[in-house]
Amino acid sequence: MKTGQIDAGLQRLMEAESWPEVIAILLDRAPDYVARGRVEALRQHISSLPEALHVPLLYWRGLCALDSDPAAALLDLEAAYEHSALATDASAAASAQLQIAAAAAVALVALSRVKDLDRWLAVMDRHAALAAQVQAESMEACIVPGFLATVVYRAPWHPLADALAARAERLLHWESAPGQRTLLGSLALHLLWRGQVDRLERVLLRIDALSAQSLASPVTLMRWWSVGVLVKTLLGQHDAARADADQALALVAREPTLAPQRTAAELQRMIVAIACRDAAAARLHLQRASATLHPDQAVERAILEGQHAMLALLEDDRPAALRLARAAVVSAREGGLLMREHIALINHALAAAHSGEHQEAADIVAAVFAHPFHVLCVWHHWVGGIVAAYVALQRGDEADALQRLRGALASAQTHGYRFGPMLYAASGLMPRLAALALAHRIHPDVVRDIVLRHDLAAPPGAGDRWPWAVTIRALGGWHIERADGPMPSSRKESRRLLELLQLLVAHGSTPVPQDVVTDTLWPDAEGDAARNALDNALHRLRKWLGGDDRILLRQGALSLNSARCWTDVAALEAALISALNPAMNPALDDSSAAPHPAPPVAWRHLYPGPLLPGNDATVVAARRTA
């Protein structure tokens, strides 16, 4: 023992049945075993003792089982807590009870029994002064994961929350400490909610690095991937989230012990599919999650119902979305996770507004903003604010919608938020609000970034402030630009391509029949040859403009996609129509958030000169004088 051969010394003492000495050494050396990642060795030493002698070591035995068997760990920890109450030294008892409470919290989170955390939260509050003290690092690794999980899941407004998060960040290098996967998950959620995206990115990098190590247990990998999928999805990092979710599903498929986590893994993959607006994949994983859902999985049931509601929005099944969103709120409350309850309320408000239940939506928005979780969760300020703006817009209260937008976009600007799966599941929500914000110059840089990052299609009447994928000016000259960078330059951009594009531009919003195009551009070619030439030119032109959706082909006629391309010709055409007949202006449609038509003086700048000067094509010339 004096030479440091602790394992060998313990073995000798056990062979001699010197149990009091063995217990004393284990109690003294247990923190060192944990600090060096030798949890399994400590567990084996404790197991070698006669069962009747395990009582003094119940805490350490429970701690060793946290990651492998949280249910067994919880039984040991509860028994250890009962024995701690018999201690005569009050200070020692308080310290022991805090350690036990922290470890029990980790076990409960692993078991999804978050409501039961309240018992251990009360223990932490009873010894608040001691809990606030920073301990030696080896002790911090034992207590901080559980304390942070307790406040994150049950009392995120707790005065110790920020301090515990800071202490947790200093423990990220403790890769093998019991509760490390809970620490990483709790810390990531805390930072997300508080808007600490830079710190959150460091935690995600740590999770990715740890997940890549083959030494991590399957249970630990699942926990890390679940955190990665959730946070990356909410931040809009879809490819990285999909990779984590696919790895989790593959691990569940080959590891029989992970069968109970099949539902959670399918739900993770489902939320990624919703974020990517892939309804078919989302429904597939919904069906698989539903088939494995256990009646006791209250948290998973709430998640399933909430995501099913989002899928219904994506599929535009509004009655189903509202019914499922209502059910998700009930399930979330039963599960006891305040974050889940709050996000379920936001989803409920969205589904109600999208379904035309305006009073119900307004009432739920009030509940969202009155919820204690809303006060501190700035990420929900972003998502909840956007939904509240949509609720106001749907009921025709533009002033309230603008006020809500200012708050939500201010949060987005401060904290870097740009995404939220439910916001992009409801058709038209983000484009309408983006157009409204741009029209009123509300954080335009943030809005343009959102539009471009998520490739939002412009709503009717969006105007020239929208960051169009393609902008073309053909009155008084010729200028074209793409939002994603300079126009590609190539010798293949033949004169014929420009003639085809100018022909479409000259017609404004009016589709041009394919026969008119071929007769104009290939008058000497016969039927099939002309059509083949058009198909080839159309393919090249779409590629040059940045995507197949830039030019539409419907009922045998071609036109620029008005949701992707802005032209001064179409804008002038719409302005003139509006001036002559305001009822025909798409900006006045209830489905659009665009501003009212401007007076003539404001749109005269759209006509700096004649259409496509120098283009002598008969069709263009006819449009010039139309």
How would you characterize this protein structure?
It is a single chain. The protein is mainly alpha-helical and 626 residues long. It has 32 helices and 6 strands. The strands form 2 sheets. A 3-stranded mixed β-sheet has the order 2-1-6. A 3-stranded antiparallel β-sheet has the order 3-5-4. Helix 13 runs parallel beside helix 15 (262-275), helix 18 runs antiparallel to helix 19 (338-354) and helix 22 packs antiparallel against helix 23 (398-415). Mean pLDDT is 88; it is low at 587-598.
β-strand percent reads under 5%
From the spread of the alpha carbons, the general shape counts as elongated
Q: Quick one: biggest sheet?
A: 3 strands, mixed
Structural class: mainly alpha
- The percent range for helix content is 55-70%
- Count of individual beta strands: 6
Rg calc: 31 Å
C-alpha end-to-end distance: 101 Å
Low-confidence blocks of residues: 587-598
Widest sheet: strand ordering: 2-1-6
Mean of the pLDDT scores?
A: 88
Tally of DSSP helical segments: 32
Summed up:
This protein is mainly α.
Write the layout of secondary structure elements.
Elements: H1 6-15, H2 19-35, H3 39-47, H4 58-64, H5 70-84, H6 90-110, H7 117-126, H8 128-131, H9 137-154, H10 161-169, H11 180-194, H12 197-211, H13 218-234, H14 238-254, H15 262-275, H16 279-292, H17 298-314, H18 318-335, H19 338-354, H20 358-370, H21 372-376, H22 378-394, H23 398-415, H24 421-425, H25 429-439, H26 444-453, E1 470-473, E2 479-482, H27 495-506, E3 512-513, H28 514-521, H29 527-545, E4 551-554, E5 557-560, E6 565-567, H30 568-580, H31 600-603, H32 618-624
Parallel strand pairs: 1-6
Antiparallel strand pairs: 1-2, 3-5, 4-5
Helix pairs in contact: 2-3, 2-9, 3-4, 4-5, 5-6, 6-7, 6-9, 7-9, 9-10, 9-11, 10-11, 11-12, 11-13, 12-13, 13-14, 13-15, 14-15, 15-16, 15-17, 16-17, 17-18, 17-19, 18-19, 19-20, 19-22, 20-22, 22-23, 25-26, 27-29, 28-29
